[in-house]
Amino acid sequence: MDQAQFTEKHGAIKLASDTERYFARLRHPQSENGAGPPIVDGHFYNLGYFRGGQNPLEQEHDWAALDTARRLTTSWVRKLRTGKCFALQSEGDGLYFAFICAASPLDAVALGATLDRGADAGPAITTTDRSGQSCLFWADSEDEYYADDLAEAVYRQYRAVSERMLAAIHSPVEIRVNSDAAEFPVIYGGTNRDGLFIGVITACVWT
C-alpha cells in the first residue's frame, strides 16, 4: 500500500477533529495549584499521534502498517463504546479513542510530556506493565473488584476487547500522564508486529 491508496481508503491526511477537540483541554490541565503547563504537546491525525512541531506529511511512513493499525484500533474503540465502557477509576464518563504512535515503547519524550513540574509533583508519566495479566485494563489481583463493580455486560466487553488487543500486541502497558492533575490521559496498548505502539486512549477525572 502506498500513500495514494491509504488516502483513498482513509481520506486526506488531516487532524482527527473529534479526538483533537476531546483532548484539547488536557493541554493545560487543572490541578490544585491551578492551570499547569501542557502535559502532552502533540496532535492527533487520522494516521496517528505526532508530537508538537512534527508534520506527518514530511515523514516517511509504512502505509500498510498504518492501515492495519487503524483497522485494529478503530475496531477496539467501536467495541468499547458500544459496550458502554468508559474510563476506569474516573469521576467522568471518559470515552475511548484510537491511539497510534510510531515511537515504541511509548515514553514521555514520544508524548511530549512536561517532565519539569517541581520536586513534589510526582512523575510526569507512569507506566504499569500488564505483561502476564489476563486483562489489559486491570491487574489480575483487581479482577474480582471489577467483576463486582461493573455491570456484567460491561465487564464482559472489557475482557473481550482486552483479548483482541493482547492478541495483536506485545509488551502491554497502561500509561498515565500527570496523574496528579484533575484530568489526565490514560493509554492502554503495546507494540504491534510492525513496531508501532497501538492502543486506546481516554481521559480520567480526579477531583
Beta-strand portion reads 15-25%
| Secondary-structure element pattern, one letter each | HHEEEEHEHEHHEEE
Q: What's the end-to-end separation, in Å?
A: 46 Å
Which strand order does the major sheet show?
5-9-8-7-6
Number of helices: 6
CATH fold-level name:
Nuia
How many distinct beta strands?
A: 9
Taking pLDDT < 50 over at least 5 consecutive residues as the criterion, the unreliable ranges are none
Q: Class in CATH? A: Alpha Beta
Structural class: alpha+beta
Say which CATH homologous superfamily is assigned. Answer: Nuclease A inhibitor-like
Structure description:
It contains six helices and nine strands; from the N terminus they run H-H-E-E-E-E-H-E-H-E-H-H-E-E-E. It is globular, with a radius of gyration of 17 Å. The protein has one domain: Nuia, CATH 3.40.1460.10. The model has no long low-confidence stretch (mean pLDDT 89). With 207 residues, it is of the alpha+beta class. It has helices spanning 3-10, 17-23, 63-82, 108-111, 143-149, 152-168, and strands at residues 30-31, 34-35, 43-45, 48-50, 97-101, 125-129, 170-177, 183-191, 197-205.
List the SSEs and their pairings:
Blueprint (H helix, E strand, L loop, with lengths): L2 H8 L6 H7 L6 E2 L2 E2 L7 E3 L2 E3 L12 H20 L14 E5 L6 H4 L13 E5 L13 H7 L2 H17 L1 E8 L5 E9 L5 E9 L2
Antiparallel strand pairs: 1-2, 3-4, 5-9, 6-7, 7-8, 8-9
Entry summary:
This protein has 207 residues and is α+β, with helices and mostly antiparallel strands. The chain has helices spanning 3-10, 17-23, 63-82, 108-111, 143-149, 152-168, and strands at 30-31, 34-35, 43-45, 48-50, 97-101, 125-129, 170-177, 183-191, 197-205.
